[in-house]
Amino acid sequence: MMMQANRWAFGTLSLLTVGWLALQLVIGVTGMEAVKTWPVTSFKMFSGTSGADFDYIVEGQVDGDESVTLDAGVLGLTELQLDGYLRRQVAERDGELRRGASHHLAGLASLWSRELSMTVRELVVRVEVREAGTRRVSQVREVARWQAS
Fold first, then answer.
1. pLDDT tens across 62-118, in order?
2. Given its phi and psi angles, is residue 133 left (phi above 0), alpha (psi -120 to 50 degrees) or beta?
3. How do residues 62-75 score in pLDDT, each as one tens digit?
4. What is the mean pLDDT of residues 22-30?
5. Which domain holds residue 113?
6. Are residues 122 and 87 located together in one domain of the fold?
7. 35 lies in the same domain as 97
8. For the chain, what is the domain count?
């Protein structure tokens, strides 16, 4: 009788473990599909602010020659997630363009156009470099530019 209870408990614990692992996999994969920066977007431990001494600024030229600065919240992202995407997919802080940067900027422009219900014709990505330990901007560099063809 005791042996059968142990088997039942072991089987139940095994099923719960498999279910928990499957849930973790689903959470990771759905976050990866949504933003393509897995695992950062899926797990809350990475949602804090960056201690870096730079900021990415994305400006778009929209219909009517209006210049608009991209707010990460418009895309459903945090500033840290957008910065991570730009750093990994577009350009490093020193201005070195990543392979396929133009493709990634075109995708960002397309997504942003849908959210704004306007056509983004040009994107400019700049890096604001701050003095160490302060918020004062010491330098602004353009690292990438994309224009609709």
1. 877 788 888 888 888 888 888 888 888 887 766 677 888 888 888 888 888 888 788
2. left
3. 877 788 888 888 88
4. 77
5. 48-147
6. yes
7. no
8. 2
Q: Read off the pTM.
A: 0.56
Same-domain status, 59 and 125: yes
Contacts of 77 (CB under 8 A, 6+ apart): 35, 41, 85
Last residue of a domain, one of 28, 43, 58: 43
How are strands ordered across the β-sheet holding 54-62? 66-69, 54-62, 120-130, 137-147
pLDDT value of residue 2: 67
Do 64 and 105 lie in one domain? The reply is yes
Specify whether 67 is located in the same domain as 100: yes
